[in-house]
Amino acid sequence: MSAVRELDDRIVISGIGMITAVGDNREDVWEAVRRGESGIDVLNGVPTIPDGLLLGATVDIEPETPGGLKVTALCQHAAAEALYDANDVLAHTDPERFGCAISGHIGDLQWLAEQAGYGDQRPSGRTPWQEQWLPNSTCAKVAVRHGLLGPRMCHSTACASGLIDILAAIRSIRDGQCDAALAGSGEAIHPLFAAGFHKMRVLAYDSDPKAACRPFDSERQGFVMGEGAAMFVVERLSHALRRGAKIYAEVLSGKVLADAHHVTGLDTDSTTLARLIGDTLGRAQLAPDNVGYINAHGTGTEQNDVMETRGIRRALGAAADRVCVSSTKSMLGHLVNAAGSVELAVTALAMRDGFVPATLNLTSPDPECDLDCIPLVGRPHQFEHALKISVAFGGHLAAVALRRWDEAGQQVGDSSVYRVA
Predict the structure, then answer these.
(1) 191, 220, 242 - which closes a domain
(2) What one-character-per-residue DSSP string does 254-303 give?
(3) Are residue 224 and residue 346 in the same domain, yes or no?
(4) What whole-number distance in Å separates Cα of residue 213 and Cα of residue 421?
(5) Residue 416 domain-assigned?
(6) What CATH number has the domain bearing residue 236?
(7) Which of 77, 239, 297, 385 is catalytic?
(8) How far is CA 367 from CA 218, 273, 360, in A?
(9) What pLDDT sits at residue 215?
(10) Per the domain annotation, does 289 fall within a domain?
(11) Residue 334 designated active-site
(12) Strand arrangement, sheet containing 41-43
């Protein structure tokens, strides 16, 4: 393989946009996470759900059009920030070679709610239902707003959606279909999701909302829903260097597997998760000791946290005793479709600044979750490589390995080759 081809195969993150319950931009969210600030509160104003019954980490943002989808507004907000952050990338990229991959979302169910007696009839000027019924409507609207004419992709793979769409965008770049892509996901709390999760008994409740989500803790009860979005500009390294882009991290590898066990239950042996982690590190040419931080899926449910701990231990062996692992769902809530992208953004910023975020509310660690889960307070920690894991309903497993970008040491002479499957 020639040096030029090796360079072209390397993929980097050159722009990040983010909005969550603790901030409306990338740096404000990251600083709140560093401080250990929780955005979780009592959830009111959700149609069909009595006020005070549920908890959630919500974002105060209005739909862009009357009756429009909140998730679209969240994604548009994060997309605009990511593109601006990427140093005028649109002006330096052929629009036919600029892709877009944004995860699917639940559509407009207002008409159905009205037929069931909830809500008023549609006011005049409301966005037509057919424009926001399809789960790919946000992906289309974001791409249209910014004139992105390259490959357009949209996956609906539950909590792994964010990572899988980022990997899909990267695959399109590596396959030569485009030079850059906007990729990510968003989530807004929907009454149907809220009712479904409540019925499944996977949601946490507490008289103190900010103490409700307790990943890896022996007293954990479940997760808390969250809202937000994160978007990335990912591009070919040669393309980024030519235009003088600021680079956050190199995406070394990614892997997607399926846990063929149960739609909502997890394989407690963690065989597939261990293979996912091992394959991701192998494709990145990393040894277990190279991993400095893992941003875990960490839902705070009984099954997930034990299964994830076992998978990490199986994959890393003795190195698992030395790796830092945390769950930022304890602060931001579980963003479902947007979980992977928001948490990957946090991971990239943690690596940039040499600081690992805490797992809040971890006051009584579960003996079966015996990793260094950064209880209560984050800490300074310089690391070169990080791993983000997503474990989703339906058996969707995804992982991404990142390397910290070093302007002095990771230029053209580096022969690393990106691999994704």
Answers:
(1) 242
(2) EEEEE-TT-SS---TT-HHHHHHHHHHHHHTT--GGG--EEE------HH
(3) no
(4) 33
(5) no
(6) 3.40.47.10
(7) 297
(8) 8, 20, 17
(9) 98
(10) yes
(11) yes
(12) 41-43, 54-57, 225-226
Range of the domain at 278: 253-406
Q: What's the number of CA atoms in the CB half-sphere (13 Å) around residue 97?
A: 16
Q: Is residue 418 part of a domain?
A: no
| SS3 label, residue 169 | helix
Residues 81 and 192 in one domain: yes
Residue among 100, 159, 369, 373 flagged as catalytic: 159
Per-residue tokens: 209: 């909302």
Q: Known catalytic residue: 190?
A: no
Catalytic residue among 334, 373, 385, 396: 334
- Tell me the two tokens of residue 298: 């960490």
Task: Please enumerate in sequence order all residues whose Cβ is within 8 A of that of 198, keeping only pairs 6 or more positions apart, or say none.
Answer: 49, 53, 54
Q: Is 77 a catalytic residue?
A: no
Taking each helix axis as running N to C, give the angle between helix 271-283 and helix 302-316, from 0 to 180 degrees, rounded to the nearest 10: 50
- CB-based contact 178:234 (threshold 8 Å): no
Q: Are residues 138 and 38 in the same domain?
A: yes
Query: Which of 242, 276, 297 corresponds to the end of one domain?
Result: 242
Specify the pTM.
Answer: 0.92
Number of domains in the chain: 2
Question: How many Å apart are CA 412 and CA 241, to the nearest integer?
Answer: 9
Encoded tokens for 33:
């996470």
Pairing of strands 249-258, 11-20: antiparallel
Q: Report the alpha-carbon distance of residue 333 to residue 350 in Å, rounded.
A: 18
DSSP codes of every residue in 71-85: HHHHHHHHHHHHHHH
Residues 338 and 368 in one domain: yes
Task: Please check whether residues 136 and 280 belong to one and the same domain.
Answer: no
Q: Which residues of the chain have pLDDT under 70?
A: 1-8, 109-132, 260-267, 408-421
Q: What is the pLDDT of residue 122?
A: 54
pLDDT at 269: 77
* CA–CA distance, 339 with 346 (Å, rounded to integer): 11
Whether residues 304 and 213 fall in one domain = no
**Residue 327 in domain:** yes
